[in-house]
Amino acid sequence: MQARYAPGARVVIRDCEWIVRRADPSDDGGYVLTVDGLSELVSGKSARFLTRLEEGADAIRVLDPAETRFEQDLTPGFEKSRLFIETQRRQITPADARIHLGHKAAMDPVPYQLDPALQALKQNRQRILIADAVGLGKTLEAGILITELMRRGRGKRILVLTLKSMMTQFQKELWNRFTIPLTRLDSAGLQRVRNHIPGNHNPFYYYDKSIISIDTLKQDNEYRRHLEEAYWDIIVIDEAHNVAERGTSSQRARLAQLLAGRSDTLIMLSATPHDGKAKSFASLMNMLDPTAISDPDDYAREDFRDKGLVIRRFKKDIRDQVQQEFKERVVKDIVLDASPQEEAAYQALLDVPFTYRGEHSPERNGQLVRIGLQKAIFSSPAAAEVSVAQRIRKLAGSEASPRQPSDDEQVEIQALESLRLALRNLDAPSFGKYQQLLALLKSNEFGWNKSDTEDRLVIFSERIETLNWLQGRMQVDLKLKGEAIQILHGGMSDIEQQAIVEAFGKPETPLRVLLCSDVASEGINLHYLSHRLVHFDLPWSLMVFQQRNGRVDRYGQSETPIITYLINRSDNPKVRGDQRILEILKEKDEQAYKNIGDPATFMKVHDPEAEEALTMEAMAEGTDAAAFDARYQPDDSNEGDDLLALFLNPEAAGSPQPDGGDSPTVERYSLFPGDFEFARQALEALNRERRQVEFSANPERATITLTPPDDLDYRFRFLPPEIRPEHGSLVLTADKQRFAEEIRRSRQDENAWPKLHYLWPQHPAIQWLEEKLLAQVARHSAPVLALPESPAINDTLPAGEAVFLVSGLIPNRKAHPVIWEWFAIRCRPGRAGAGEQSEVLEVLDAETWLPRLGLDGKLPNRARPLALEPLEALRRPVIAAAREQMAQRQAEFSAATRPELERQLAELKALQARQVHQLEMALESSRQAEHFKASRREQRLGRIEAVFDDYRTWVEDTLTIEPVPFIQIIAVLTRDPE
After folding, report:
1. Model confidence band, residue 299 (pLDDT cutoffs 50, 70, 90)
2. Which of 159, 203, 220, 925 is deepest in the core (most CB within 10 A)?
3. How is the chain split among helix, strand and coil, in percent rounded to 5?
4. What is the pLDDT of residues 445-463, one digit of tens each?
5. For 471-482, how does the pLDDT look when each residue is reduced to its tens digit (9 = 90+)?
6. In angstroms, rounded to a whole number, what is the distance separating the alpha carbons of residues 579 and 274?
7. Integer CA distances (angstroms), 682 to 86, 602, 763, in order
8. Above 80 in pLDDT, residue 278?
9. Long-range contacts of range 403-408, CB-CB < 8 Å, 24 or more positions apart?
10. Where are the beta strands (DSSP E) in 550-672?
11. Cα–Cα dist 219/626, whole Å
12. Confidence of residue 876 (pLDDT cuts 50, 70, 90)
């Protein structure tokens, strides 16, 4: 590649300034330049140009740093230069594995929340499964990593996939904490996009950053076509266990596999990363890294020990870090004896002679039917009536499609009618759990007040019929208005679910009681105004216990979580034994919470439905509680955990240690005390010559209020409508505490989005401001500062000398900056009359030299005219000195990475050979016809080759740097002429 088109070089094309990101050979003998706009007209735009075409029209010019024009800064206190230098420093993208910005988000991070980002940044490709336990803040951990990638220029396009009930919650969390603007593409949002674009345009290119439900995507084949043609920098899949392969490849799994290849970075979040089977976990790992596991039944630790693809912690692991952030839950069991009417219903159930395939079946199959109905009775009479009616309809058919039951089935139907009658006799006064619930809610000890808008109640039941019954009864018995008690279940649309979850977190809404099915036990935050949770029925799965309780017992809960279980006990030995099994599950959940971490280590199937099936099997077999307890003791002896443990080995997934020092975070030197002062002085500078921005600043509250000018307002049109400034006024604050209060206050507002914006480098307004400041200095120019006398300046910059601040950048083949250095190059300008020659004296590290100069303080600018010719004569020797330094760093980087590149390529070659060998072994043992085996071999070999070629290209492009650095003179500092 020609040196003049090096990535990082600045070029003028069609009278606009651009920075070259890639330069790829084209068929016409020239190059295809991929560029990002720098000048005001094209700022924020990306484009591709053919150099032969542009050169033919004389419309392209490479900016030579040795021809940089100098402009003496005459502004008071060197305001223009200080802002320009600071803004240039803010453009430096980190190339190490430490945290540069994420820890400054609108949160109080604790060390464990930085670990996923630290682990991912150590990898060539940031692809990671964050598998922390429920309630530890996986969304925040993902936000820190996304912020770091955006800071590194690798997060322009982002797609988040989550459950439809969690879309608004996830969207708000990433905006409030990290100012990451995700546009919500729910059914209404998608329709809005479709209305704005032609029918043949890809809706996923309309917004750079969006969030959508994976179920919305899978329902429409049109989306799949658009997905195949779109590409993102980052894809996040929340509750990723829902996209794992479970025996067969589901629509969700196939969609996730497609998306896994459509982004550089893939972040998966799940507290339950597998179902106990290696295949399930391996499917997630192969989405993260297709070379990781060739065969879940035949894998070796060395295949993936250093990949760092997974991180997993439980509350017990990080308790010493989060004593203030986590409140210890209080668990209360309310045990009550079954009423006579309940006992009659239980007996009627046991009297039913259940059938299987038309014949009476007293053994396992018939007992499983009984357990299914018993599960409904344990929830409520209303749920049981529905289940009984469904069973009768199955046996006798319906009016539209009647069937003739067998003699045994007719006997069962008669007994089911008796059971239905017993259930109808079980009214609200005789329904013990409900009466106990009413007594609990009215008791002084429980302390719940339905009038307290900040003390809301969550009640869980697995059956929607139970929730509907509770809603009707509680409105009457607790004198609750209809809008005060609502139901949340999976049958609702995405918009309905989001609206209810939002309303539950806003104090001004009338909603007081949320009745939830187990759809609400996965992922959503209910802890903002609620710390009381009641299990109206006991779950039949340990994982459901954890998911339910995690809605209020999670990171950020300010009150002590109170978890209450309503436990009904029958005198009937058979029913009592089954109820005791559910109590055993509750006890095991408490054991997992206190000592183990993962409740799935008991039943070892890692799937709620599979756990429920084991519970039902135990009851159907007549297993007593002691035997059930003994059968399910905690250990990690399943293939899913075995495989997970290999990925979690200490070499790769222990607490990550960042490169380059003990501290995992970096605090860069700034010429300003903070973001507020930088923004305030920048806005004042913009208005110095003519008023460009209407704004006011309040230093005491670290707040800036401004009216967005047209170009800033235009940017907000492409951001989510929820974050656009209200009434034409944008209010930003750098005060974390005040902003946290605003987040809490916003939940009391009809519009649940904060009216304040967080003032920090990632906010769109600050990025707009930085671009305006860069444009204040003319194209291809650098300011010259003639500094006055002061002790710091006398020590750092002797009279008769000048220091050039020079930036040197070398990207890798993926156009990601790998080496980005600032030099302070000491020079002695020649004086023509004295016959002195200009010379370069020393090259210093600007990171250490600049703080010694004292530019962050107030310096008077006497604005005496300065002869620029001696400084201009130094441009070429200074550039030559900078190139020499960059060549040295380039050689050091190549020497350090060459062995690593060779090692990784050799490992990929060995792993590819291993996968081919496994394929041949499988085909050899297959009994298929030879032509079928030949077809399988060709298809699978093609897939293996494509996967490994792609990964090899990625590794080579990541670890191979471009040969030519881009050099830029940022500023020249010299002494004020006497």
Report:
1. low
2. 159
3. 45, 20, 35
4. 898 988 888 889 999 998 9
5. 999 999 999 888
6. 28
7. 10, 59, 15
8. no
9. 405/358, 406/355, 406/358, 406/359, 408/353, 408/355, 408/358, 408/359, 408/360
10. 562-569
11. 46
12. very high
310 vs 644: CA distance, rounded Å = 8
pLDDT digits (tens, 9 = 90+) for 778-794: 888 999 999 999 898 99
For residue 211, the cross-strand partners are 160, 184
Task: Say yes or no to pLDDT of 55 above 90.
Answer: no
The encoded tokens of residue 856 equal: 């962050």
Q: Which of 818, 820, 808 is nearest to 961 (CA)?
A: 818
CA–CA distance, 316 with 597 (Å, rounded to integer)? 6
Mean pLDDT on 288-310: 67
Of 210, 214, 296, 295, the residue nearest 250 (C-alpha): 214
Cα(719)–Cα(179) distance, integer angstroms = 11
Q: Residue 797 and residue 787: Cα distance in Å, rounded?
A: 9
Confidence class of residue 300 from pLDDT cuts 50, 70 and 90? low
690's CB contacts (< 8 A; 6+ apart) are none
Give the up-direction half-sphere exposure of residue 340: CA atoms within 13 A in the CB hemisphere: 0
Would you state the structure tokens that stand for residue 371, as one six-digit string?
């357990």
In whole angstroms, how far apart are CA 704 and each of 737, 765, 908? 16, 11, 53
- Give, in order, the Cα–Cα distances in Å from 551 to each of 107, 258, 446, 495: 20, 31, 19, 20
pLDDT attached to residue 317: 77
* Tokens linked to 10: 């600045």
Ramachandran area for residue 720 (φ above 0: left; ψ -120 to 50: alpha; else beta): beta
Phi then psi dihedrals of residue 972, to 5 deg: -125, 130
Q: Amino acid letter at 281?
A: F
Nearest to 514 by CA among 542, 489, 540, 488: 488
- Residue at 964: amino acid letter: V
In this predicted structure, which of 89-103, 884-898, 913-927 has the lowest mean pLDDT? 913-927
Confidence band, pLDDT 50/70/90 cuts, at residue 658 = very low
Please state whether beta strands 263-269 and 562-569 pair in parallel, antiparallel, or not at all (unpaired): unpaired
* Lowest-pLDDT range of 258-262, 652-656, 832-836, 879-883: 652-656
Closest alpha carbon to 253 in 244, 262, 261, 241: 244
- The reported pLDDT for the residue numbered 907 is 82
* φ, ψ for residue 632, nearest 5 deg: -115, 80
Q: What are phi and psi of 336, to 5 degrees?
A: -140, 155
Average pLDDT, rounded, for the chain: 85
Pure H helices in 838-929: 846-853, 869-872, 875-925
Q: Which two tokens stand for residue 773?
A: 């400041």
> Residues 719-748: what's their mean pLDDT?
85
The 8-class DSSP code of residue 593 comes to I
Please choose, from the candidates 888, 887, 891, 874, the residue with its C-alpha nearest in 3D space to the C-alpha of residue 805: 874
**Beta-strand pair 730-733/756-758:** parallel
Confidence (pLDDT) at 108: 82
Please tell me whether the overall predicted TM-score, pTM, comes out greater than 0.85 for this model. no
CB contact set of 460 (below 8 Å; sequence gap of 6+) = 516, 517, 518, 520, 521, 533, 534, 535, 536, 537, 548
Residue 642: is its pLDDT beyond 70? Answer: no
b (16+ CB within 10 A) / e for 27-65: eeebbbbbbbbbeeebbeeeeebbbbebeeeeebbebeb
